[in-house]
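Problem: given the chain below (146 residues), write out its structure.
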Amino acid sequence: MTPYLALDQQMLTSLIIASKGGVKVDIIIPGVPDRKSVYLVTKSFIGELLDAGINIYFYKKGFTHAKVLISDDTLASCGTYNLDNRSASINFEATALLYKTGVDKLIKDFNKDLSISKQVNPKRWGNRGIISRIVEGMFNLFSPLV
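Solution.
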């Protein structure tokens, strides 16, 4: 779960490899943006992730600022780290790494958020307008700066 999804090539490739290797990958992003330009960057990654079998969800209660990563029900990260380049290499973001203890609470919260989120339908996403595709593609060019 992340408010800003501006993946570098390594993270994008890692998510795709995981999904194609049989790992279930669910990502919740905001249903409403706080910054329109960054939201367009986030949306520019949806098609490629969906094509790889990754489940994308829009959080229906508006903007969510949660930053959570859960792996294998035993390992989790929760903190200020977004899935973007700025968090990784510029802002010195912090995250708590949890092993077993506390992970069950994050899983419960994530599943609650998942239940109030709308899954993106790959077919519908692929049929969205050409203008949306062009604008998102242009904003994708700026993803290394986000």
